[in-house]
Amino acid sequence: MKLLRMGLVMACLVGMVSCSGGSEEDLAVDGKLPFKIGIMTGTVSQGEDEYRGAERVIAKYGADRIKHVTYPDNFMVEQETMIAQILNLAADSKVEAIIIAQGVPGSMAAMKKVKELRPDMLFILDNPHEDPHQVAGYADLSLIPDDLRRGETIVELAKNMGATSFVHYSFPRHMSQELLARRKDIMEDHAAKLGMDFVYVNAPDPTGDQGLPGAQKFILEDVPRQISQYGKDTAFFSTNCGMQEPLIRAVMDKGAIFPEQCCPSPTHGYPGALGIAINEEQAGDMAQICEAIQGKVDEYNQQGRMATWPVSIGIVTIETAVDLAIKKVRDDIDITQPAVIRESMQEASGVDVTLVPFEGKDNYYLVLLDSIVF
């Protein structure tokens, strides 16, 4: 049935390429974009910040200009569904750019299928999970936190926060990703240089048999075990978005150290873990959210032991990607130029951004921001 659905979408794509009608000028009404942008994100449970980022750009440009879909939580098993969603976005002749956030497995296959019929389709990826060298051959631009540099910066931050041990939670699927595996190795080497114990813990994959609830339950149960062995001056880190909330909650309850999330953000795990309600007015105000987090940290007497980045890298990347897509499609600006990317990203974030290309790739950039310690 899934293959039939994908085949129908491909048929629509073929028909669209051969007989698409209308012009961009027809859509340029009331100052709206003369084209559409498709965005695929995870659900709130697996990628809340990217999801909220999509909501923000929809509020800015309109639901008739931004088409937002989500990939399944169990995307490893349901890759055909994910690919069909991308093909469905591309079947709309007015969609001229597609943003995939995060670039989960199946993204390259989807881009390849679309490019075969619509070679001019612009693809921007946030946090690609697949091989970076191959992704660079399909996506027009990829943006990802600088996991190689973070291998050092996260451990250094943990050390400065008082950590003597560093616990790293992950699972084989993530460790098969080049940048995550290299970051783990860098963390281990850097911890040794700083005289810290490095502990790798194999956690359940949220896309596996136990699902996200099983993975979260494991974190809540394992953090106290690690603290009983290594003490409260232990820093905890996980490579998975769905694990951040239980990890923050367990660290706060037990008085340990939390230097940074996998995808750093004041809104990633902190509000849910600490019972912070965020209304619509506060949703985009990172300063207010950080102030609320600080209040909870003070209640727990955890000052100096909890940290993140000052803004949501997930939300910022979505907003940046949309801005860059507009610049490319409407104005034909070269969006692979570092100065162009940095300008858009700093406007979206309001903070300084460090940007470096990945190993000579001029369309795959690693992003780094400074940390905020509560």
Automatic annotation (TrEMBL):
<dbReference type="InterPro" id="IPR028082">
    <property type="entry name" value="Peripla_BP_I"/>
</dbReference>
<dbReference type="InterPro" id="IPR024258">
    <property type="entry name" value="DUF3798"/>
</dbReference>
<dbReference type="Pfam" id="PF12683">
    <property type="entry name" value="DUF3798"/>
</dbReference>
<protein>
    <submittedName>
        <fullName>DUF3798 domain-containing protein</fullName>
    </submittedName>
</protein>
